[in-house]
Specification:
CATH topology of the largest domain: D-Maltodextrin-Binding Protein, domain 2
Subcellular location: Cell membrane
Structural class: mainly alpha
GO molecular function: ligand-gated monoatomic ion channel activity
Distance between the termini: 26 Å
Radius of gyration: 30 Å
Family: Belongs to the glutamate-gated ion channel (TC 1.A.10.1) family.
Helix content: 55-70%
CATH architecture of the largest domain: 3-Layer(aba) Sandwich
CATH class of the largest domain: Alpha Beta
Mean pLDDT: 76
Number of domains: 2
Number of helices: 12
Membrane topology: Multi-pass membrane protein
Protein name: Variant Ionotropic Glutamate Receptor
Largest sheet: 3 strands, parallel
Length: 245
């Protein structure tokens, strides 16, 4: 063990050694140590270069507070629950302060066009935002929009309204409950907005996937070649007459 540690440290420090290791265990340990050091240093060096070279994108806002401080015009669809809450909110509240910089109309295609050119931001529900991102990706094959990480409201429920005393309501509730337990509505919804997941996973600080930091998976081939070479070497030691070593 001491001989292996000594030889490994000598290799890493660039010092000469009096002799090469002859035992198989010493060779394997030294080789694994050197290979691990190579991989760790390469991954660290590539990530460090990526942090220093790639530009860092500074988002104009990432929460409601930052949106109000930036004073960016914000589209809120007229007649929606969000618009109604904003109009009825106290002046000193976040929604009340948003009222002074809000833009409201009912032309959704126009709102998407002006959002694309950067004329305003959009304050909308999660389902609406995901649908818009999915549609834009289908048309342009790109993800020019981003969503703020901090949400303003929690999850809101979606319900089906029936008249009071509707006789089929218990049966419909039972069917819907079973569908929700199996996750079928969520699966269907995610299928319809499948491009949203790709846009949410994109790294906005990375220009493209052609240039990226090295990952551990990039060295799996090196591990395979090293393991194959050690296996051949051990096979030659065990069966010298068969392998010719």
């Amino acid at each position: 063990m001491w001989s292996s540690a000594y030889l490994t440290l000598a290799f890493l420090l660039g010092q000469s050694v009096p002799r090469l290791p002859s035992a198989s265990a010493t060779r394997i340990m030294g080789g694994l140590w050197l290979l691990s050091a190579l991989i760790v240093s390469s991954v660290y060096r590539s990530n460090l270069k990526a942090m220093l070279i790639l530009p860092k994108l500074r988002l104009p806002f990432d929460s409601m507070e930052e949106l109000l401080e930036a004073n960016i015009p914000t589209y809120v669809a007229d007649g929606t629950m969000l618009h109604q809450e904003m109009m009825e909110a106290p002046p000193n509240s976040l929604l009340g302060r948003l009222r002074s910089q809000s833009v409201s109309y009912l032309d959704l295609p126009r709102a998407i066009r002006e959002l694309m050119v950067g004329r305003h931001a959009t304050f909308a529900g999660r389902l609406v935002g995901q649908s818009v991102i999915h549609r834009i990706f289908e048309q342009t094959n790109s993800c020019p929009l981003y969503t703020a990480k901090k949400t303003f409201w929690g999850g809101t429920s979606v319900a089906i309204a029936f008249r009071k005393g509707f006789p089929l309501k218990p049966k419909i509730d039972k069917v819907l409950r079973r569908l929700m337990e199996f996750g079928i509505p969520e699966h269907l919804h995610q299928t319809q907005i499948r491009h949203v997941r790709k846009c949410q996973k994109d790294d906005f600080t990375r220009p493209s996937d052609t240039l990226r930091p090295l990952d551990l998976g990039d060295f799996y081939g090196v591990f395979t070649v090293y393991a194959g070479g050690e296996g051949e070497g051990l096979g030659g030691v065990v069966h010298p007459g068969l392998t010719g070593y």
